[in-house]
Amino acid sequence: MTLIQSIIIAIIEGITEFLPISSTGHMIIASTLMKINNDEFVKTFEICIQIGAIMAIMLMYVKKFLSGLNIYFKLMVAFLPTAIIGFLAYDIIKSYLFNPIVVATSLILGGIILIFIDQKVENQQTTVLEIESISYKNAFLIGLFQCISMIPGVSRAAATIIGGIFNGLNKKQATEFSFLLAVPTMLAASSYDLLKTNIHFNSQEIMILGLGLVIAFVTAWITVKFFLKFISHYGFKHFGYYRIVIGIIFLLFIKQL
């Protein structure tokens, strides 16, 4: 991986991690197009930039994380299904689902669902005053939706936002709960991946890792601010259209390889 490639991948991670368009899918697409070998350094780099994106959310929502233990309990309940299924199916998912065909197909199908969801949520009223007051049952059900995102290209953000909407949250609440749930989910996934990675890097590689983390942090911060304003005016349908277009383009591209 060159310096330019690392900067591109870090920007893609920061932009796509919290949007309902699949960061994993976009990084697989980008890596395929740039012919990046998936070696130990690249695996660790992808983990580091995810941590950068997580740090942006932790800082942006620091008041909620410091408001009390209630939000932690709700997030842990929501995280539980992913923790169990992810641990049991980790090797199968990594071995068989991380490929361009799965990503492209998931992008298209997820895009279609987002368009329909946008119509459902347009006038949906919520009975939840604050996302911290969501019931444990609904938190768990949103967590079940998140499990679907283990399929590359589905998007963790899309799955949890859809789960939130089906459990009575409005679009802003569903989106913010998705952001918060990303913290335990991504920290656990990143930590588990790091444990399975052999880390022996030179000074230049360490510099690239640090740079990627910072770039992902900054781009994630800017993107989240933009995303919340965007959905309040335009909803989710445009992300659905984007997913369908990029999925079709990538499918056509795959056939040329």
List its salient traits.
single chain; mainly alpha; 78% helix; 0% strand; globular
Q: Distance N terminus to C terminus?
A: 21 Å
Major β-sheet annotation: none
Mean pLDDT: 89
Q: Give the domain tally.
A: 1
Number of helices: 11
Q: Which structural category fits the helices and strands?
A: mainly alpha
What portion of residues belong to β-strands? Answer: under 5%
Q: Over the alpha carbons, how many angstroms does the gyration radius reach?
A: 18 Å
**How many beta-strand segments?**
0
Uncertain stretches of 5 or more adjacent residues: none
| Form type | globular
Q: Percent helix among the residues? A: over 70%
Q: What pattern of helices and strands is seen along the backbone?
A: HHHHHHHHHHH
